[in-house]
Amino acid sequence: MALVKRKGITISRQLMDDQRSFPEATGALTALMNDLVVAGKIVSAEVNMAGLADILGQSGRTNIQGEDVQKLDVFANKTFKRRMEQCGHICLMASEEEDEPVQPLPGYEGNYTIAFDPLDGSTNIDVNVSVGTIFSIHRRVSPTQGPGTEADLLQPGSKQVVAGYIVYGSSTMMVYTSGSGVHGFTLDPSVGEFFLSHPHMQIPEVCKYYSVNEAYWPYWNDNIRDFVSYLRGSEQGHKACSARYIGSLVSDFHRNLVKGGIYMYPRDTRSADKPEGKLRLLYEAAPLAMIAEQAGGLAITDDGRRILDIVPERLHQRVPLIIGSKAEVEMAEKFLRGERP
Ligand code: AHM
Ligand code: MG
Q: Ligand 2 centre and the CA of 247: distance in Å?
């Protein structure tokens, strides 16, 4: 029976409700998610102190783990790693900040993998602009004992069991899907709890905003340029979208999810060592693609492949990304095929 979602329930209640819809569930995923939520709260508290770090740092500020103040992205990476390596349900993890996969502590191995970008939006960290964490959870495919293998991590987005993000903005929000809709929770910092604020999120079908770094215009192909011109409203008959580009994927995606919009980071010819654009398949594109689709949107590459179908070959694989409102991503597909409205 589908449970009615009321605003205000706690995230742990929601996680237990998710578990109830799978009678065979052991509670492992719920426990894993609860640890992830704790990591998110710790990072949120640190992000909120970031502006004071220099001032407090001079007086020898130490953080919650008793360490000296450190760079936020390093802090976020350590925090998520620490929570996950001893949550007891991870067999292997991958972080955008780590060259190699990271094993859990001996004896704490479980049946899931997690891939995360601990603090996305690195150029915005020092300037008080929203950043976020993105995560992607798969069930292991290797035999269920001991540490996992890289094959456990290199699974397509369509096999994700949970995907989500935490955005550290004017409020801290956690948005996730376990395959039956997308729910958003807002952190009440006074009590340290996430409460359901955005049940059953649906991305508006029509695009209000387009988000792309237009400085790269000279380096795009003609299909992308024509599509961006179309979004701007320079093609007859199309209502212009407004431009919004924060430069933090999580924040740009979150705004477009709530308001309607399309985000793009296509490949470009700026540098030969990034022929597939900048964004990472495992840590960024695949988890956001699952959320987009669960919210009624779409996510494709700049040659029209569905992001969730791509089988990763490498942990840090990059992928061109077009993601957001359904009607607009479908229109992008037409442009990519060489068609014009
Ligand atoms: P990061 O993971 O190092 O922060 O890089 C990813 C970020 C995205 O959040 C953002 O959308 C993009 O890079 C911005 O890149 P650019 O400055 O090239 O527009
Ligand atoms: Mg990132």
A: 10
Q: Is the CB of 122 under 6 A from ligand 1?
A: yes
Q: How confident is the model at residue 68 (pLDDT cuts 50, 70, 90)?
A: low
Q: Whose CA is nearest to atom 16 of ligand 1?
A: 247
The answer, yes or no, to whether any atom of ligand 1 lies below 6 A from the CB of 323, is no
Residue with tokens 């961006």: 228
Among candidate residues 165, 198, 231, the one where a domain is terminated: 198
Determine the distance separating the centroid of ligand 1 and the alpha carbon of 249, expressed in angstroms: 6
Q: 147: domain range?
A: 2-198
pLDDT digits (tens, 9 = 90+) for 227-239: 999 999 876 656 6
- pTM of the predicted protein model: 0.94
Instruction: Specify whether the CB–CB gap between 92 and 148 falls below 8 A.
Output: yes
pLDDT > 70: percent of the chain:
91
The answer to whether residues 307 and 298 touch, using CB atoms and an 8 Å cutoff, is: no
Structural domains counted in the chain: 2
Choosing from 198, 226, 259, the residue where a domain stops is: 198
Q: At 14, give phi and psi (nearest 5°).
A: -60, -45
